[in-house]
Design a protein that fits this description.
The chain is mainly α. The protein contains 4 helices and no strands. The chain starts with a helix and ends in a 5-residue tail after the last helix.
C-alpha cells in the first residue's frame, strides 16, 4: 500500500468513526447515516481541522455531498 492509499484509508476510517458506522466508501452520502446531526457535522469539521490542518466552514460542509467531497476538503488525495 502506498502513502496515498494509506492516507485515504486512514481518512475513511476516521470519517466512519465520526459517523459511528462500521465503514464508509468514497461515494457514500455522509448525511444519510442514521446518526447524522448538526453535532456530528461539527465533529467532522473539528476532526478535519485538527487532524488535517484544514479549516472547514459550515458553508463548505453544506456544499459537500459525499465522503469524497469531505476528503477533498481535508486535502486527502487518492479519491
Amino acid at each position: 500500500m502506498n502513502d496515498m492509499e494509506t492516507e485515504l484509508q486512514k481518512f475513511l476510517e476516521r470519517i466512519a468513526e465520526v459517523l459511528e458506522v462500521p465503514s464508509v466508501a468514497p461515494d457514500d452520502d455522509f448525511r444519510a447515516v442514521p446518526m447524522w446531526s448538526s453535532l456530528v457535522g461539527f465533529s467532522t469539521m473539528v476532526m478535519i481541522d485538527l487532524e488535517y490542518g484544514r479549516e472547514v466552514t459550515a458553508a463548505d460542509l453544506k456544499s459537500a455531498k459525499t465522503v469524497r467531497d469531505l476528503a477533498k476538503l481535508a486535502g486527502v488525495d487518492g479519491l
